[in-house]
Structures are given as C-alpha cells and as structure tokens.
Design brief:
The complex is a heterodimer of chains A (about 100) and B (about 475).
Chain A (H helix, E strand, L loop, with lengths): L5 E10 L4 H8 L7 E12 L1 H16 L6 E3 L2 H9 L7 E3 L2 H7 L1
Parallel strand pairs in A: 1-2, 2-3, 3-4
Helix pairs in contact in A: 1-2
Chain B lengths: L2 H69 L5 H24 L5 H23 L6 H94 L10 E8 L8 E11 L2 E12 H21 L3 H15 L4 E9 L4 E7 L5 E4 L3 E4 L17 E5 L5 E5 L10 H14 L7 H10 L8 E8 L3 H4 L1 H23 L1
Antiparallel strand pairs in B: 1-10, 2-3, 3-4, 4-5, 5-8, 6-7, 6-9, 9-10
Helix pairs in contact in B: 1-2, 1-3, 1-4, 2-3, 3-4, 4-5, 5-6
The chains are: A alpha/beta (about 100), B alpha+beta (about 475).
Chain lengths: ~100, ~475
C-alpha cells in the first residue's frame, strides 16, 4: 500500500478506562484512512476498554469497506491480544515497518 | 486537582507575586525619593552657606578698604588681601555646587564681575591714594556696585529657595505616586482573591455534584449487579460449584463481570463467565443482555461455540461494545466439559491436584466482529479435577497479566482439595484479604473424587466415553 494512504496513531504508557475518551478521539484519525496502524509498541498496559475501542474502530472500518487494521505490539501487549483471541482479526506486528508491510 | 483548579492556583500565585513585586518597587521608589530629597536639602543648605560666605568676603573687602581710607593704617589691608584671594575660590565652589543642584549659577558670575569692577574702580584707587580728591565720586561708585552685588545675592538666594521647593515637590510627588500604586495594588489583590475564592468555590461545588452523581450511579450499578448475580449455584451430584464476586476497590470501576451456571436437565450444566468492557449502569445493563442471550441460546443449542457465535450476532444487533466471555457445557453423564472462549482469559483445568492446563484457543470478543466463529475444546472431567474460570481483575491487579496468570496457576496447585469453596480459597490466595483494583469474578467446578461411587451409571458412561474423548483432546491440542 502507498505510504501516503496509511495513517498511524501511536500511544505510550498505560491505557485504561480513565483514558478512554482521549484514546477514542486519538484513534478517530484512523477511521477514514485506507490503511490504518495502531502503534502500541510503547504501551505497558491496556485494559479491555482500550481493546473495545480498537475493535469498535475495526468494525466501523470494516463496515465502510476498509481493509483490516495493523497493530504494532510489544511482547506484553501481544499476549493481551492473544488472550482476547484477536490475532486473526487484527494484523499484529512487532515493528512499524512490519505493520506497514502487512497492509 | 482539576486543570481549572491548578490554573486558578497558578494564576493566583503569579498575581500575588506580581503585586508583591510592585509593592517592593514602590517601597524602593519612596526610599530613593526620600534619599534624593535629603541629599539635595543638604546641598541646598551648603549652597546658602557658600552664598553667605561670598557676601561676607565682599563686605570684608569693603570694610577693610574703608578702614584703610579712614586711618591709613596698613593693618586694614591684610584682611582685604585675604578676602580678595578667597572670593574667586569661593565663587568657583559655589558655581559647581549650583550646577549640581540644577540652579542657574549666573548670579555668582555676576557677583564676580561686580567684585572685579569694585576692586578696579573703588578699592585700587582708594588704596593707591586714600586722600584722593575724587573720593566722594569713588565711594558713590562703590555704593552702586555693592548694591548691585547685594541684588545679585538676593536673586541667588531666591534661586536656591526655589530649587529647595522643587525638590520637596518632587519628593511629595514620588510619595503620592507610590501611595497610588499601593492602593491600586491592594484593590487588585482584593479582586484577585475574590475571583480566586469564587473559582475555588465553584470547583468545590462541581466536585460535590460530581461526587453525588457518582454515588448515585454507583448505587444503581451496585443494585443491578447485586440483582443480576446468581445467588445460588445449582447443586449437582458429581461436582461442587463455587463462585465469588468482589466489586472493585476503586468505586469508579464497578463493572460488568458475571458468572452463571444453570442445570439444563438431561445431566448437562450450562455455565458462563464474562466481562463487559466499561463500567457503571451501561455495563451492568449490557451484562444482563449477554447473559440472557447465552441462556436462551444455550437452552436450544448444545455446542458452546455456536452459543457464543449467536450471542455475538445478538449483541451486534443491539450495542456497540465489547464483551469477553467463556461459555461451557458440562456433560456429567459422559464426564466431559466442552468450552468455547470469546476473548476471555482462558479457563484452567487442574488435573490430579498438580498438572494445570489452560484450555483452548480463543476467538474474538463478543460484539466486536461480524460473523465471528469460535472453536470448542473438550476436556475430560476426571474425578478430582478442578475447572477454574475467572475475569481479568484476578490477573491484572498489578497491570502485568503474565505474572498474574503465573500466580493464579501457582495458587491453584496450593489450594487444598477438601471439597471446600475453591473460588474463595483462590481469591484469598491471590489478594490475601486486600480489595482488588478491578472487579473480580471466579467460578470453580470441582469434580468429585467419589463420583463413581455415587452413580454407577454416570461413572460407567464416563469410562466408556474416555477413549474417544482422549482422542478428541489430542486432536484439539494438535490443531
């Protein structure tokens, strides 16, 4: 995919329900992009409310006919996505470059 | 503190600091004005003294010359000469002082000129020839010159007095200005304090309203949760079911955790555990919908993977949220448990009190993906084994779910298998009486050691089923 069609939203630290509104508004930039990457490489913890936001976005995008999103995860966050059974729903990548290559 | 509260504190502090600095500058200003005034008063006093000295020198010269003219005694000429030498020096000193004081020194120069004229036109002729015939005329000139000298002196005195008045006026003005600054500063402080306290009060009121709204919401959410949670788990012949639910320690986190177990008849038990993303009333309401959906589908549908898939479709029709859940069916007659997982922390089977196994792969959470599909994992419900299901509050208390899982596995091995409440024992081992940060629900199903003695038919069925089931498990593990 052309680099210019890809939008990236990067996050760091802990994302829990207290940051939900903020997280949602930052994710919103990905809604209309052809390719979307959620960069969670620097995230140390997220709870299910953050996961819910990502999945809501994924659903909205899939309804709009957009391709699956890619998510950059570190080992800890990857485990979180795997517990949630999302490894086949979202394209998990270890680096931003890998994520771009997956799109 | 809120952002507005911090802002008003910072603003208040800065304003107070600014006013304080203004006061400080004003105080320094007054001090400097008073110092300047004292300095200039001292100089003005010296100027008066110098002026008087010059006048006296002129008079000394005149007296001496008159004395000499009258007596012809040279004795009078000594003070005359001293005065003649001293006068220009004194004049130079005074001129410089006047310039420093911004006073016009021209009367002093005028005096020096008049003195020169007097020396040449009056003093010299009289000293040269005290008995001169034109003495009257000379004295007349002398009187004129001395009168003009006195006039110059008078105007000089007036100039110096005017300068003194100017200096006093400047000091008074500086003091007045400083007073004005102080009064304005005081008014500004009062206004700021009023604004600050109003802001603080408004914030406090807002916080109080929030708190009340919060308490109300929590009360309703708690009431719903309480109403929804199953009070009594089914009593089953060959298994002990136990459950605990602990609300979050942080009030804001009362969430949508649940557990359920129903006897479907025909020796099957449908159970579920789950967690609605989000908190408060909304989460509690969604939780009730999911549980109803699972139950109504589960009554008709024996495959837990299909139960979850259909529940997912039902949820997608209604709400935009995410729910993680495990749904399972225990078939006591066959001695097998079939489990499907929708994004939930995996169930754990403890065999022989030592070997632990996390059960099965997970599909996506409910309410997230259209046409999500789930897989079923079957495990043997061997006598003495313990099946444990929990919500993420149990493993994420320290924000490290891997470490949390490890601790749960260790705790399960250490729980005594005496038919007691395994759910409560696990909770106690993980939290040791502390209140968890997030809601925690635990459902345990302990399959009794003595199951075979209770129902020969059930045990027989379980034995017959085992070879097939082992094969089934191996296949699932391989896949």
């Amino acid at each position: 995919m052309n680099e210019q069609q890809i939008a990236v939203a990067s996050f760091a630290g802990e994302i829990d329900f207290t940051a939900r509104e903020d997280f949602r508004s930052k994710l919103a930039v990905l809604a209309d992009a052809e390719g979307a990457i959620v960069d969670l490489a620097a995230v140390t913890y997220m709870d299910s409310s953050a996961l819910a936001e990502i999945l809501l976005l994924q659903r909205a995008r899939s309804h709009a006919g957009k391709p699956a999103m890619s998510v950059v995860v570190n080992e800890r966050i990857r485990r979180f996505f795997e517990i949630a059974g999302l490894q086949n729903v979202l394209l998990l990548a270890a680096t931003l470059d890998e994520a771009k290559a997956l799109l | 503190m809120t952002r507005a509260g911090r802002l008003s504190s910072i603003f208040g502090f800065l304003s107070a600091a600014a006013v304080f600095i203004a006061f400080l500058l004003a105080a320094f200003g007054v001090r400097a004005a008073i110092d300047r005034n004292a300095e200039s008063e001292r100089n003005l006093r010296f100027a008066h003294v110098d002026r008087a000295r010059m006048l006296r020198l002129q008079l000394d010269e005149e007296t001496a010359v008159r004395g000499y003219a009258a007596t012809h005694l040279r004795l009078f000429l000594d003070p005359y000469r001293a005065a003649v030498r001293a006068l220009p020096v004194q004049a130079a000193l005074l001129s410089r002082r006047l310039v420093d004081l911004s006073v016009d020194p021209s009367p002093v120069q005028q005096e020096v000129i008049l003195n020169g004229q007097w020396l040449r036109g009056v003093a010299s002729p009289l000293i040269r020839d005290p008995a001169s015939g034109s003495r009257v005329k000379i004295e007349l000139l002398g009187k004129q010159l001395v009168d003009r000298y006195r006039e110059a002196d008078a105007s000089l005195m007036a100039e110096i007095d005017a300068a003194a008045e100017r200096s006093e006026a400047a000091t008074a003005r500086a003091v007045n200005e400083t007073f004005a600054i102080a009064i304005l500063g005081g008014a500004a402080i009062a206004a700021l304090l009023a604004w600050f306290s109003m802001t603080q009060r408004r914030l406090a009121t807002d916080a109080e309203l929030h708190r009340l709204a919060y308490i109300e919401e929590k009360r309703i959410a708690d009431a719903l949760q309480e109403a929804f949670l199953q009070k009594k788990l089914p009593y089953v012949a060959d298994a002990d079911l136990h459950a605990v639910y602990v609300p979050a320690g942080r009030e804001s986190r009362v969430g949508g955790d649940w557990y359920d177990a129903f006897e479907l008849g025909d020796g099957r038990i449908l159970f579920s555990i789950g967690d609605v993303a989000g908190h408060g009333i909304e989460a509690a309401v969604i939780m009730s919908r999911v549980r109803q959906a699972i139950l109504s589908v589960g009554v008709e549908e024996s495959d837990p993977a299909n139960v979850l898939a259909r529940t997912n479709e039902i949820l997608l029709m209604q709400d935009a949220t995410m729910v993680t859940a495990i749904c399972g069916v225990i078939d006591l007659a066959q001695g097998v448990v079939r489990i499907a997982n929708a994004g939930h922390p995996p169930a754990i089977m403890l065999f022989d009190g030592n070997r632990v196994e996390q059960i099965g792969a997970s599909g996506p959470p409910l309410g997230a993906i259209d046409r999500a599909s789930y897989t079923v994992t079957s495990v043997l419900a061997t006598p003495g084994s313990l099946l444990t299901l929990y919500t993420d509050g149990l493993i994420e208390n320290d924000h490290d779910c891997e470490d949390g899982e490890r601790r749960v596995l260790e705790a399960l091995r250490a729980i005594p298998r005496d038919g007691g409440d395994a759910a409560a024992a696990l909770l106690e081992r993980i939290f040791g009486g502390e209140t968890p940060a997030d809601d925690v629900a635990i459902l345990t199903i302990a399959f009794r050691e003595d199951a075979g003695e209770r129902g020969a038919e059930g045990a027989g069925a379980a034995k017959r089923a085992r070879p097939i089931l082992r094969h089934d498990v191996r296949l699932l593990l391989a896949s």
